[in-house]
């Protein structure tokens, strides 16, 4: 019976229908499913690419894991650093001192996040050394009060390498006139560009020893930056560190430090998935109208099959096969088209830009010169499965309707 329903269903699909309108609706349903799947796979891949690029830029400056001391900073941090390095999943560890202040040059003043680092150890936990546009990170020397500025911050201050800037910190001195902020002159020794506006406009690096003096931490540090081999394992490693090291402070991984941003990106990705899935659903349910018209067209055939002994179940299976074939072909075309477009989106965008003479992504605005794409096969399989399930559901009502055709009524006027 199953082979018979498959044979007849395939024959109905290949046969030329008497109604060209029915054929057109069937083709439109197939192409609608294909276009919906292509759009969904491409958009999900581009969003994955953006997420990957932004995450790489953020974590190129920020930490995978931070071990943060309380008000007085981390004491005995060298011992803690040795314990952390002993963990097999840790790639690098480096101390840091964090503080806030105002940078001034001439009439320009900007609030900044000051990060005191050891240039010799910083490469083990961040990409700042690789992101230097002008100068070198190891130009920061203890006691020389050099400073490395973000590209946007340097532009806002009008500062270049060799310029002298004034750093004002809230850790002031008490005088008869009240609290007086501390003021220290720094020489710009380099400019970095992380490719992320938040860091390029608000961050500055100085030597860790200068930062300890500036923020009055003596030999203590604000904390330790930790780099792990696999970003996805950072949360589990952070939990392990909480249990294995004894500190007067906190252990936080990057998913907590940047939770708001990455949660927003994930929600946006899910909403786009739902919206584009609705496009596939609309195309899939066009199969309902297609099969309803096919069933009406095939009433005499159905009646003949019933008089020859075909059961309602067999009739239902015939039209399920016919509708499923449309869904499967549309899904296959969409998957192939989506994968090809996702893998070559950069070339397609470049061709569109050349043809129409405009930039889809302006580097000055997005810090990206090409559209990123990260194709994940899990997204492809989920999309294909959803399409096939929707197409299958769309065939149930017309197929059931076909199984209920009364042979006597169908043949009365034939």
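^ Assign residues to that structure.
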């Amino acid at each position: 019976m199953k082979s018979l329903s498959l044979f007849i269903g395939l024959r109905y699909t290949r046969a030329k229908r008497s109604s060209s309108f029915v054929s057109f609706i069937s083709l439109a349903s197939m192409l609608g499913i294909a276009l919906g799947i292509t759009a969904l796979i491409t958009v999900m891949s581009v969003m994955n690419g953006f997420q990957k690029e932004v995450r790489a830029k953020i974590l190129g400056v920020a930490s995978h894991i931070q071990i943060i001391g309380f008000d007085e900073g981390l004491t005995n941090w060298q011992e803690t650093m040795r314990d952390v390095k002993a963990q097999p999943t840790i790639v690098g560890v480096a101390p840091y001192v964090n503080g806030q202040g105002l940078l001034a040059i001439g009439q320009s003043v900007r609030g900044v996040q000051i990060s005191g680092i050891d240039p010799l150890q910083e490469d083990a936990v961040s990409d700042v050394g690789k992101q230097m546009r002008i100068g070198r990170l190891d130009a920061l020397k203890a006691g020389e009060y050099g400073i490395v500025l973000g590209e946007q911050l340097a532009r806002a201050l009008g500062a270049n390498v060799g310029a002298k800037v004034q750093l004002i910190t809230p850790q002031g001195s008490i005088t008869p006139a009240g609290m007086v902020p501390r003021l220290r002159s720094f020489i710009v020794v380099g400019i970095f560009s992380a490719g992320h506006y938040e860091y390029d406009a608000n961050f500055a690096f100085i030597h860790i020893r200068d930062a300890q003096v500036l923020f009055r931490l003596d030999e203590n540090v604000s904390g330790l930056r930790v780099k792990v081999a696999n970003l996805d394992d950072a949360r589990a490693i952070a939990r392990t560190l909480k249990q294995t090291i004894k500190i007067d402070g906190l252990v936080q991984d990057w998913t907590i430090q940047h939770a708001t941003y990455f949660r927003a990106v994930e929600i946006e990705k899910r909403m786009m998935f739902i919206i584009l899935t609705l496009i596939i659903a609309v195309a899939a349910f066009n199969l309902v109208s297609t099969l309803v018209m096919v069933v009406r067209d095939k009433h005499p055939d159905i009646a003949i099959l019933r008089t020859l002994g075909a059961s309602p179940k067999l009739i239902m299976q015939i039209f399920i096969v016919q509708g499923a074939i449309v869904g499967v072909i549309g899904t296959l075309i969409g998957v192939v088209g989506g994968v090809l477009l996702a893998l070559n989106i950069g070339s397609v965008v470049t061709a569109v830009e050349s043809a129409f003479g405009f930039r889809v992504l302006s580097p000055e605005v997005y810090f990206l010169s090409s559209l990123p794409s990260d194709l994940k096969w899990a997204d492809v399989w989920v999309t294909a499965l959803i399409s096939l399930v929707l197409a299958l559901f769309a065939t149930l009502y017309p197929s059931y309707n076909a199984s209920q055709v009364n042979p006597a009524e169908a043949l009365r006027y034939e």
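The mean pLDDT is 79.
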